[in-house]
Amino acid sequence: MTSPSDRPLAHGFLPERLPVPHLSGSWTRLDALAHAAAAAPCREDARLLVAEACRSDELTVLRHRTARLSGHRARAAAMRVAVVVAACGWTDLDPVSPRSRRAANEEFLALWSSLAHRSDHPRFVALPTLSLLNWAPLRKPGRAIPVDQLARTESLVPIVRWSAREQPLSRLDRLMLATVRLEAHGVWLFRLAETLAGRSPGDCAISVALRRMTRIQHALHGQLRSDTVKLSLAPATGQQCAVLTSLAEQEALEPPVLLASDAVLGMGGRMGVGSRYQLRRHLPAQHRAWLSTLDRRSASVRTLAHRRGPDADAYRDAQESLVALRCAYAELVRTATQPTTRGRLGSTRPMTRTARRNRVTVDGAA
Question: What is the predicted pLDDT for the residue at 285?
Fold first, then answer.
C-alpha cells in the first residue's frame, strides 16, 4: 500500500494523492453509514445505524470484498470506518478482542479488523486517519499540484462532515481541517529534520537548519492562533465533544508534524505513559519506522542540550518554539471542546520543564 513517493518527507504525513471523496459500487453503503453516523445527535443513535446495517448483511458483504480494494481506496474505506467508530464511542476497543463483541456489533468488528489487517495499521482510529484522509479542495484543481501544496493554497472542505449538510461547519470539522493545514505547512519541518539527521555538533549546517525550524514553528504557531479564533465562533454539540474526548483518552490527538519535530529536538517523555511509542502507535507502520530512524539519526544533534555556544542556543530556541506550538495546538483542542464561545483564548506562554514532557490532552497543554 506504499510507494517510494509515499514517504513522509515527500508530503509530510499527508497521503500521496488526494483522498477519495466518494466510494463506489457496494462501498457506497459504508460511505452513507459514515455520513449518517457523524451527523447523529448521540452515540446511541449512531450505534442504531450500525445495528441496522448489520441486520441487512451490508457490512458482511463489504468484509468479503476488502481484499479487492486498491491501497488508495482501502485507506478511504478505513477513514469511513474510523468515523463510525468515533461516532459510536468505540475508540477504546480492539476489534479482534473477544471483549469487544459485547460492546459492538460482530459484523462491524469484522469489517474493522479486515481493513486494519489490509493496511497493516491496527490502530487507525485516531486523529491522523480522521483528519488527513477526510478533506478535499473546495474547487477541483485544474492541473497536477502536489497534495501538500493543494492543502496549503486551496480552501478545504471535509469529505465526511461532523455537522449536518445544511448547517455551518462544526468545531470538530474545523479542528480536523486545521490539522490538515498544519501538516501541509509543516512539510518544511520534515525536510529540515532530514537535513539535521546524522549531523554532529560543529557542523555549519546545524545552526542554520535549527534557526529555520524555529521560524517555521513560529509561523505555524500564528496559524494555529488564527484557526483557534475562527473555530471558537463555530457551533459545537455534546456528541462532537464526546468524540474528541474519547480520542484524547486514547492519546490519539498529537499531530504527526509535531511528532517529527519532537524526534529531532528530544522533547518526548520516557518510555511508558506519554512516551513517544504511546503517541506514535496510531500512525501507519512506515511512518512509525521513519520517526524511529529520525530518533536514532538525531542523537548527536540532541547533545546540544548539554553544550554552550551558538549551535546550542539555536537548539534551545527551537525547543522553546516547539513548546509554544504544542501549547497553541492544545488550546485549539480545548476550544473545540467548549460548549460556548470563550471570552479568552488562553495562554500559550512557555511551560515548565515537567509540563513540556506531557502529551497533548483535552484538559491540558502539550
Answer: 85
Could you tell me how far CA 120 lies from the centroid of its own chain?
18
Q: Which of 171, 222, 180 is nearest to 338 (CA)?
A: 171
The alpha helices in the chain, defined as continuous H runs, are 8-11, 28-38, 43-55, 58-64, 71-88, 106-119, 127-132, 147-153, 171-185, 187-196, 204-232, 238-249, 256-265, 276-280, 285-297, 299-302, 310-336, 353-356
Q: What is the pLDDT of residue 274?
A: 54
Kind and range of the H or E run holding 157 = strand 156-157
Residue 343 sits at the vertex; the CA angle it makes with 338 and 346, to the nearest 5 degrees, is 75
Q: What is the pLDDT of residue 180?
A: 96
The burial of 3, by beta-carbon neighbours within 10 Å (0-12 exposed, 13-18 middle, 19 or more buried), is given as exposed
Strand 156-157 to 136-137 pairing: antiparallel
The residues that bridge with 157 in the sheet, in sequence order, are 136
pLDDT for 359 equals: 36
Calpha distance 22→35 (Å, rounded): 11
List phi, psi (to 5°) of 347: -95, 145
Using CA atoms, how far residue 261 sits from 11, 89, 90, 337, 343, in Å, is 15, 31, 30, 26, 31
The per-residue pLDDT for 9 is 62
DSSP 48-105: HHHHHHHHTTHHHHHHHTGGGS-HHHHHHHHHHHHHHHHHHT-TT--TTSGGGGGTS-
What's the pLDDT score for residue 340?
55
Give pLDDT < 70 ranges for the chain.
1-9, 267-275, 339-366
CA distance to 129, 168, 197, 221, per residue, from 182 (Å): 15, 22, 22, 9
- Grid coordinates representing 308 are 554552550
